[in-house]
Amino acid sequence: MKTMILAAGRGERMRPLTDVTPKPLLALSGKPLLVHLIERLARAGLRDLVINHAHLGEQIVDLIGDGARYGVRVTYSPEGEGGLETGGGILHALPLIASDPFLVVNGDIWTDYPFERLPRVLEELAHLVLVDNPEHHPAGDFALVGERVQAEGGHRLTFGGIGMYRRALFADCRPGRFALAPLLRAAMGRGVVTGEYYGGRWADIGTPERLAMLERELVQG
Q1: Of 12, 84, 131, 144, which residue has the fewest beta carbons closer than 10 angstroms?
Q2: At 219, is the pLDDT very low, low, confident or very high (cuts 50, 70, 90)?
Q3: Phi, psi at 134, each rounded to 5°
Q4: Taking Cα atoms as reference points, which of 203, 208, 179, 204 lies closest to residue 18?
Q5: Residue 13 has pLDDT above 80, yes or no
Q6: Cis bond leading into 119, ω under 30°?
Q7: β-bridge partners, 204
Q8: Sign of torsion, CA 32 202 113 104?
Q9: Domains in the chain, please, with CATH?
């Protein structure tokens, strides 16, 4: 199964760190966030990767290269300086993604999620991994009712930036800059989005303070 890593964001809230370093290359425990993620994907047998990039993207290409040193194969999907957002970036990369379904992971998360437990066959249009709501996002994003993800109602959880998608989810999309969330909400309204809850370790690295906090947690074991 092909895996796409979203690494094209500007990281405005991480400035000034991201003025000179793309967000996925910020260091955690002496290793770039992106490398932590690639190594975990490789251990799960997910070794065929596409990485999109925009802001300072040449640094990502220079560091990761073809991925051989990490035991993976990497293809790049470059975007313009402003990027194409999540939905536009995935649509732009689809010609590089042969599998259906395919996995998409945010490049600015750290987690011990076991990627090998993801389904390899997907009957619906999307499958999302949901996590507990962090302090900075108490309202959550979506509700998980049984195995179905709903846009409203129920106990709300946070989308963990780990999702499997069918190519058909993007069938009516046009090239350009657009977000993924409206596509997912429309699919939820049709009852074609499944999901799972993960209660293990997960963090999105949205600010320098969150990065420093996670660093302290890892140092303390």
Answers
A1: 12
A2: confident
A3: -70, 165
A4: 208
A5: no
A6: no
A7: 109
A8: negative
A9: 3-219 (3.90.550.10)
Q: Please give the structure tokens belonging to residue 145.
A: 């009712």
Tokens for 10? 């500007």
Residues with Cβ < 8 Å from 154, sequence gap 6 or more?
143, 144, 145
Q: Does position 46 have pLDDT exceeding 70, yes or no?
A: yes
Task: Look at residues 18, 91, 97 and name the one whose alpha carbon lies nearest to residue 57.
Answer: 18
Helix (H) / strand (E) containing 216: helix 208-219
Output the pTM of the full model: 0.94
CB 81 within 8 A of CB 58: no
Structure-token pair, residue 71: 């035991």
Q: What is the tens place of the pLDDT at every residue in 78-110?
A: 998 888 999 999 999 999 999 999 999 999 999
